[in-house]
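Hi all, long-time lurker, first post. I run a small reading group and we've been trying to get comfortable going from sequence to structure in the token notation. Rather than ask abstract questions, I figured I'd post a concrete chain and ask someone more experienced to write out its structure so we can walk through it together at our next meeting. Sequence below, copied exactly:
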Amino acid sequence: MKYRYLIMLCCISSLMSCTSDNNSTQEEDAQSLQEQYATLKAYGQTTTCTNAADWLYTPVGTKACGGPTSYLAFHMDIDTTVFFAMVDAYTEAEKDYNEKWGISSDCSITQEPTGIDCENDLPILLYEY
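-- Answer (accepted) --
Happy to help. Here is the structure in token form:
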């Protein structure tokens, strides 16, 4: 239980440190987004995947044309209030990044997963092609 609170504290402090910095380079901003995503993924996947029924997924990020950049699996037992606040903060940060650096997109629609499976103790998003 202490581990869970430590992770939550780290996640919140990480998100609070992600402020808009007009003096940062594009590479620094991209690195910040990557770190935020890694923190988000780590928080949502603190449990090993042994039963796919215990997992859900959510859209994450925003393309320049709109719509999510990707989908991320998360375990149902995490604090979803904290998790979705992190998702919203990441999505807003990616929107700001796209606007700040004039990022364009192919405007393709990111396919939504059809389900989740467990493979090597990790959640795997399933897609129908």
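A couple of things your group might point at:
The chain has one domain: 28-126.
The two ends are 40 Å apart (CA to CA).
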